[in-house]
Amino acid sequence: MSKDWGNLKLEGEIEKWDDPCNDFIEWKIDPPLDDESGIGKSREKQLRTAITGKDANGNEYNTEWDAWDQFHPNWQARGNPETDGQLTANDGIDYYNHLREHLSKSSVYGNILPIIQDFLDECKKRNIVDANPAAFVLDQTNKPDTTKKYPEITVAQWGQFFRWLGDPQIRAVCVLMAKLALRRGETLNIDLPFLHLDHPIYRDYLNKRSIELRDEVKNNPDSVYIPSDPRQGEEFRGEVRECGNKTAKGKLLPIDRELKRVLIDWISMRGDFGYPYPLFISEKGKTRLRKPLRSLKQELREYGLAVDYIEDNDKNMDNHYFRHFFSTNMQDGEGTYDGANWPWSRIKIIRGDITNSGSGDQNKSGGDNLQRVYTHNWGNLIREPYLRDIYNFGLYNPEHELSG
Fold first, then answer.
1. Which pLDDT band, with edges at 50, 70 and 90, does 176 fall under?
2. Which of 63, 284, 310, 340 is most buried, by the most CB atoms less than 10 A from its CB?
3. What pLDDT does 142 receive?
4. Predicted local confidence at residue 231, as pLDDT
5. How far apart are CA 74 and CA 88, in angstroms?
6. How far is CA 11 from CA 26, 76, 214, 351, in A?
């Protein structure tokens, strides 16, 4: 979605939006910028099908579902900023539910709703409407990774591999990424003061090195805090970081008992490394760990799981794999794990996809609202459902669980 550049006083042909549906399509066919190519016939039909349901001559397309203008014929009057009418989030939700009755998720997410979002965005910029319910729905439900077709590895298969894996640090990196949908940079940038494990082994480890927990985690046992900083190449806590965190907002994430045990196993073997006390360190113990995926792929090949496809590079495992793994398995009917049925809004909070893009009602209904609820209701909204629903790799027998 393009950035909201406000209600500019546009000049010339582009300003004539007396018939927004058709004017928007004509604007796409013949864009005002000389260096921008217009859409072709195929894309024009897609736009007309989604927005008006009619071709350029006014003939209706034979579809089982209604276009936006057909489903909400009074959308323009209700969205007019100069009247008391108002488009609401329910307008987007109702239309989404209508589409899902007739179309696949990939069609709804990948084609129809993005078209309506783009259309209403342009209308909003021209003061035709004051809200974008399609953007709200996409912000709440849009799913990433739809083009990447990773090899399907089940929770049980990963558990078998992690039990076989002899490197406790790579195991900790992977289980951490898999259970919390962390990016590579977020994982490798974790410093011990940002990690609170409620266990005597960890407390003793920190005390012996005079390491103090950060305020973000001090009163939140069994949690890790991922700040929005650093950016790639930026100095953070006295060290230039090779990777950026890329998360839009700092996020406090819960740690379940299995991940806690995995981290304790690694930390109890971790060599001394001074300030800024990185959680993961290189094999020689002189630098922060940098390329865990390379080591992981080597171990997976040795174990016998395929991770590289020469003829289909789109399936190759990359640094985003575990974010995809978490996102699909925590939604009902999406992955191979059937123990969770999370809404996309909650998954976005864990992933750190909340942003401040946009303005006005759309923004208040989207990322900022999620962040506000997340901040003030962390236990009920995030921690409790997470600890109840997160998959377990079966790495430890219950009778051998950590105490404390």
1. very high
2. 340
3. 54
4. 82
5. 13
6. 16, 22, 53, 41
Phi, psi (rounded to 5 degrees) for 17: -120, 50
Burial readout 359-371 (b: 16 or more C-beta within 10 A, e: otherwise): eebbbebbbbbbb
pLDDT band at 127 (very low <50, low <70, confident <90, very high): confident
- For the whole model, what pTM was predicted? 0.62
- Decide if pLDDT at 359 tops 50: no
Pick the closest to residue 355 from 168, 188, 138 (CA basis).
138
Instruction: Label residue 310 by pLDDT band (50, 70, 90).
Output: very low
pLDDT tens across 178-216, in order? 999 998 889 999 999 999 999 999 999 999 999 999 999
Give the separation between CA 91 and CA 83, rounded to whole angstroms: 17
| Cα 184 from Cα 32, distance rounded (Å) | 41
Q: Is the peptide bond before 133 cis (omega within 30 degrees of 0)?
A: no
Alpha-carbon distance of 355 to 246, in angstroms, equals 11
Query: Average pLDDT for residues 30-44, to the nearest whole number?
Result: 71
Q: Distances from the Cα of 245 to the Cαs of 189, 206, 242, 294, in angstroms? A: 7, 24, 10, 20
The encoded tokens of residue 118 equal 């783009």
Supply φ then ψ for residue 60, to 5 degrees: -75, 140
Domains of the chain in start order, with CATH, are 12-141 (1.10.150), 155-400 (1.10.443)
DSSP character for 79?
Answer: H
- The alpha carbons of the chain give a radius of gyration, in whole angstroms, of 25
- Residues in the chain, overall count: 404
Structure tokens at 265: 């196993």
Tokens of 187: 């994982």
